[in-house]
Structure formats: C-alpha cells, structure tokens
Write a structure and sequence with these properties.
single chain, alpha+beta, four-stranded mixed β-sheet, 6 strands
Length: 197
C-alpha cells in the first residue's frame, strides 16, 4: 500500500515521524511517497534564533518524550532556518536514487548536529556526504530546477486540505500531525484490510 508523507526538514515532528513511518514501511511492506512542503518561507536562510520561553520549553520537553518512546536521538537547534533549498535538493536526490540517504543526512545535520541546512555551503557538504555531486546539486539550486516540484506539492496539499506537516495520506485519507507508532500501525492495518491502494 502507498502512503504519501508531506514533510518539512525544519519540523521536529516530521523528523520523529520519518523514523516511525519508515519502520512501519518495512514491517507492513509500504510504498512511501515523500512530498516536501515549505512551512516557513518567511524565515531567512541565515536562520532566526529561538527565544526561550515557557511555551517553547514545554514543547522541547514534549518532543524529547516523543522521541524517547522510539529511542530517537534529537536535539533541537537553537535556531530555525529556511528549508527551501534542502527540499529542492531532496527532489534532485530522487532523480539519482539517493533520496533516502540525503533525507536522513539533512535531518541528522539539523536535529542532531545543529547545522544550518538553509546555508547553501553547508547543504552542499551534506549532499556530498550522502553521495550526491555537490556541483550538480549547486547547479540544480542555482537554476531552480526543482522549485516547481515544491510549489506543486504545496498546491496539491492545499487542494486536499492539507495545511501542515507531517501529514500522512493513508488509503486516500489524510492523517494530520504527530502520531505514535502504534496509532500509525493501527490506521495503516485498517486501510490495508479495507483494500486500500
């Protein structure tokens, strides 16, 4: 069965969710379709510092607890950045059969190493580490070859009333927000039982 995942690299819930859905894809023989969606285009590539406050502190605590449920290592960076270039590079990685390697490398860089994935030079290093040609990635970003793919994902999401990430489309129905592995498994198994495509 195919499961479409709308994601963004600066979303910690997407990072955790990617581990969960990938684990289930092996267990339940799923075909995963990843669709990048930029959720904060207004943030500059240089990034913006996060200001500590009680609400953010509680969010960090909740994220740590969620990640701990599945043994996922995560450390929120002290800044939020722009994800457009990383999403475009991910689409390019698909054309080279290296999406998975790049996908994991970007998440690891941002949510474990605190690297600014909005910085082009840093992103090219991440791409090279994932097996991509930095020169080819740079050319893709310079010429905005994959920009239309990200815009298309966004239009498609809006047309299907998908307004945030992560969103999982399972058996034709969207499931919004962070979900436990158990919840995802239950919903996917029900969709399979219904004969979901």
């Amino acid at each position: 069965m195919k499961v479409t995942v709308y994601y963004d690299y600066i979303c910690p819930y997407c990072y955790i969710g990617s581990f969960r859905i990938e684990s289930l894809s092996k267990e339940l023989n799923l075909e995963l379709e990843w669709k990048g969606m930029e959720i904060h285009p207004e943030i500059p590539p240089s990034g913006l510092r996060r200001k500590s406050n009680p609400k953010l502190d509680q969010t960090v605590k909740n994220i740590d607890e969620m990640a701990g449920e599945d043994g996922i290592e995560i450390k929120l960076p002290g800044f939020v950045t722009n994800s457009r270039l990383s999403l475009e590079a991910a689409e390019f990685a698909k054309t080279k059969g290296l999406f998975g390697d790049f996908h994991h490398a970007v998440y690891k860089a941002y949510f474990r190493e605190g690297i600014n994935i909005g910085d082009r030079k840093q992103l090219l290093k991440i791409a090279e580490g994932a097996g991509l040609s930095p020169a080819e990635v740079e050319e893709t970003l310079e010429q905005k070859t994959m920009k239309s793919m990200i815009e298309s994902n966004h239009r498609e999401a809006e047309g299907n009333m998908i307004l945030g990430v992560p969103t999982y489309v399972i058996g034709g129905y969207p499931l919004h927000g962070s979900q436990s592995t158990g919840t995802l498994r239950t919903i996917i198994e029900r969709a399979i039982d219904r004969g979901g495509a």
